[in-house]
Amino acid sequence: MCEAEAWADFSDRWQRVLDEPKPLKLFKMQQASNLSGYFAGWKVAERDAKLRALADVIIATPSICGVHCTLDLAAFNEILKGQMPRRTDNAYFLAFHSVVSSVCHELFHGGAKEECELMFDETWFLDREPRSGIPS
């Protein structure tokens, strides 16, 4: 989360790092960690250098903050699965709304007075069943 101008600057710097030698169309940490997908064929040292450069972009943007949500799929399936209407009976649906409400809480208690725009790079989870791991 950050102001629009800071996000635009962050995004430009992030893209420049992605475009540097050994360019990446996009970044997925799971692919980086196991050298698959866009990182297939990379050496560990090359991957680590790209990760350091991307981390430097994050570190250089002190006004940016993140919101994180972790799912315990086993607990959800054991305790909540089947207790809600079919359309919302999905752990990712619950997590999605937890993230949105957390952002609203932070903005409200932080005194934000401007509009907030939320962007998600994917919303596939609203129509699929949860599974272990992160989709590639």
Along the chain, the helix and strand elements come as: HHHHH
Task: Name the quaternary structure.
Answer: single chain
- Overall pLDDT score: 85
Structural class: mainly alpha
Q: Into which percentage range does the β-strand content fall?
A: under 5%
Strand count, sense and barrel status of the largest sheet are: none
Head-to-tail CA distance between termini: 24 Å
Helix content: 40-55%
Q: Could you give the count of β-strands?
A: 0
Kindly provide the radius of gyration, computed on alpha-carbon positions and rounded to a whole number of angstroms: 18 Å
Overall form: flat
Low-pLDDT sequence parts: 132-136
Instruction: Give the count of helical stretches.
Output: 5
Number of domains: 2
Description:
The protein is 47% helix and 0% strand. By secondary structure, it is mainly alpha-helical. It has 2 domains: 4-59; 73-126, no CATH class. The two termini are 24 Å apart.
In short:
Helix content is 47%, strand content 0%. It is mainly alpha-helical. The protein folds into two domains: 4-59; 73-126, no CATH class.
Layout of helices and strands:
Elements: H1 4-19, H2 29-34, H3 44-59, H4 73-79, H5 91-109
Helix pairs in contact: 1-3
